Amino acid sequence: MDGFPATSLSNDAVKARISATEAKIRHLRAQINQLMSELQKEQRTLGKLWFMVVPIGTLPTELLLEVFSLAVGSECDDADAAETDILTTGVNRALHQALLLSHVCSAWRQIAVCSPHFWAERMVDVRMDRKNNLDVLRMLFDRSAPLSISVSLTHGSPMFRTHSPTPSSVAIAQAIAPTALRWKYLKLDKSSFETVKRIFSGPFTALEVLDIQFAVNLQSTPIQLFSECSHLRSLTIKSDSMMSSHSLDRSLRMPWAQLTSLDLMEYNPLACRSILLQCRNIISVMLTTSEWNSSAVDVPSTTLLFLETLEMRFEDGGEDIGRVEPFFTPLCLPTLHGVGLAFDDHRSTVWPGPEFSAFQTRAPHVTRITLNQCPITSPELITLLLLAPELKALTLGVCPNCIDDDFLHALTYQETSAQQLGPQLQELHWRYVGVLRSDLFEAAVRSRCWTANTAPPHFRKLKKITINEESFLAAPLPYNWMQDLIEQGLELTCLS
After folding, report:
1. How far is CA 200 from the centre of its chain?
2. pLDDT at 89
3. Is 254 in a helix, a strand, or coil?
4. For the residues of 139-180, what is the DSSP string, one character each?
5. Helix H or strand E encompassing 16
6. I need a labelling partner for 167 at 20 to 30 A (CA). Which of 105, 246, 418, 437 fits?
7. Terminal Cα distance for the chain, rounded
8. Three-state DSSP state, 101
9. Pseudo-torsion of CA 171, 175, 178, 182, nearest 10°?
10. 262 pairs with which residues across the strands?
11. Is 188 helix (H, G, I), strand (E, B) or coil?
């Protein structure tokens, strides 16, 4: 109908024409909807047909899933992901990318949704301060079932964290609690640890790796939450319990004896040592604790048959003289290969010379030693190397009293010498070890860089050297006077 109707029409005639026009509109819309439905159907068919001939469409499902995993694990900028309020950064970014992949086409969606492994291989970072993410979390947990999964429970920005459970964290914990039986990796910050203690009763039967932090409010009643984790092998604990009256080894029950890896921050040295001695199957240990103020703390000798790597950091315990020998006196480590010791302030610490020498006889196969801010002197370092005949790498950092002329003379290979220092030594990494005489340093290095025809028996050739430029003051850098050794294969790095 073009233009306005004639004014001579009656109201009934106008209403009749309105009804007819509306009916025609409904008919046209129905036709349009039908055509759109047919169009969408044909578009889906076309997509499936193209998918059958394009290279990626011919891949087996298993291989396509591998491609998906590589794509999800790659790092790339995504402006759309940055705008969302769900899991988009760090470990969560991969999950967001997985969601995007499942919306590319129906075939990809079916493959992704029906493949639990695709969702289970990424960590799920549960933000306990974002209750509006619950639907997304439920979907992720559902799609990964029945496989075991990795979960991180955090409270976001540190400025908003609290050590007490919040209504949001309690609601989220209650919602995800039924999935705890499938958790193989669990990471908890301080606030989340308090929430888990309150809401979860365990057991975490699938748990293999646990990483937890908690504050000083240790309890006199032991926490049994993880004591029955029969599959737990790797444990990281960051404790702020320096001022607590309850030590960690008594307040937190763990299956210490079955652990193979331990990263422990416990400032009570007695509790720290007690925990270490209970780890009878441990392979790798990293400890952060404080120094003892007395050496008169005896415990029975303990053999840890499988320990291969021992790293310890001793922080200032507030005493005028700090001692560390009680850690080494009970230890017998027949399979130990790597030792790393770091000190908060070498000026207040006494190097446990006799005790560490005795310890070395009970750990005769050490191949790597790292010392940072260590109070060891040159004669003590010579003794240390004499008792480490299998040593391959020596790393020293901020040890100003450990290298002098006598040490460089001792390090120099001499065919007539009765005792050769470090016959297997292949790597030297020294930073801030004081000022060295360049001629003595060069002599020591050259005596250990021989050709195949001149190599002494049972000695290894020096392969790598890292040293800072300040060690030579105004003298030319080693690059200038060891160029021939570099051309023969010596890897030399001078740090500015």
Report:
1. 25
2. 36
3. coil
4. HHHHHHTTS-EEEEEE-SSGGG--SS--HHHHHHHHHHGGGG
5. helix 11-53
6. 246
7. 87
8. helix
9. -100
10. 235, 285
11. strand
**Coil, helix or strand at residue 466:** strand
**pLDDT tens profile 251-276:** 888 999 999 999 999 888 888 999 99
For residue 437, give Cα distances in angstroms to 91, 401, 411: 49, 14, 13
Q: Are 138 and 175 in contact (CB under 8 A)?
A: yes
**123 SS3 class:** strand
Q: What is the Cα–Cα distance from 282 to 308, expressed in whole angstroms?
A: 8
Tokens of 250: 């008594």
**Tokens standing for 359?**
């310890």
DSSP 458: T
**218: which residues sit within 8 A by CB, 6+ positions away?**
239, 241, 244, 246, 247, 248, 251, 252
pTM value is 0.80
**Tens digit of pLDDT for each residue in 29-70?**
999 999 999 999 998 888 778 777 777 777 788 888 888 888
370-387 per-residue burial string, b: 16 or more CB within 10 A, e: under 16: bbbbbbbbbebbbbbbbb
Enter the tokens of residue 217: 């409010």
